[in-house]
Amino acid sequence: MAVALTACSGRGVTSYPELVLATGPPGAVFREIGGALATELHGAMPQTKVTVLGTGASTENLRLLDEGRAHLGISSLDAAAADPDGVAAIGRLYDSYLHLVVRADSEITDFDDLTGKRVSFGATGSGTEYTMLRLTALTGLDVDDMRMDQAASARALAKRDIDAMFSLTGIPTPAITDLLRHQALRCLPLDRQAADLAEAYPGSYFPATIPATAYPGLPPCPTLSIPNVLLARTDIPDTVARTITETVFTTADAMAATRPEAAQINVRTGIATSPIPLHPGAVGWFRDQKA
């Protein structure tokens, strides 16, 4: 689903015919952050048609960028680093956390109990799917894995159509927050799996903890985090990339009013996109902030 924001006039601003921003699926932070960013870009570039494209998330966004069907896309760093051709980073945004969620009355108490169970690996083309395929290869996890977006996974878990769901997302994620309003849940630890991924893929995965403040009634949960980056096609003009970069990092507080994850967006960590190079327009803007 695509949503377009348009305006017909503007003076003293960067002009570009259209920007298509590939985001994520229903119930995902990518979708929410993308919508907030599109609103800010519309204000900064009123002569540009800004279109928000709902997608499966990271892997699909990379494909859309490669095909020229999107100009901008949000991706987890692990997926982007595996296929960086033709894209450059506007900047690092916020970190996603890998959630393993079950119903509170489930017999599943840890990762190893998933064997033979019905488990959602996220939407096809998502960062969740990408990371879970890596984790499955590392650990030999043998489950009946299904592909559902976060909202659909939450509904299926509530109806007992699946036994567990993985979700790689910012915190708090809308799908889990909404489910908790009528269904008691548990978040299971993934500290051993975090260590496995960090050792196998240095620089993409980091041990982390989902804090108790993320979800009402759920205690802290050890897991892994993955940085998310805003990517642009390398053929976007430097002036346009510079305006996009400025918009992202100067309106983060405004976006954080509706999306708490945006509070993580800052100039200090924004340049930390390795191994994805920054777009030259982004480099210019970041350099000026140090002047």
From TrEMBL:
A Pfam cross-reference name: NMT1_3
Annotated signal peptide: none
Transmembrane segments: none
The protein's name in its UniProt record: C4-dicarboxylate ABC transporter substrate-binding protein
Naturally occurring in which organism (per UniProt): Nocardiopsis gilva YIM 90087
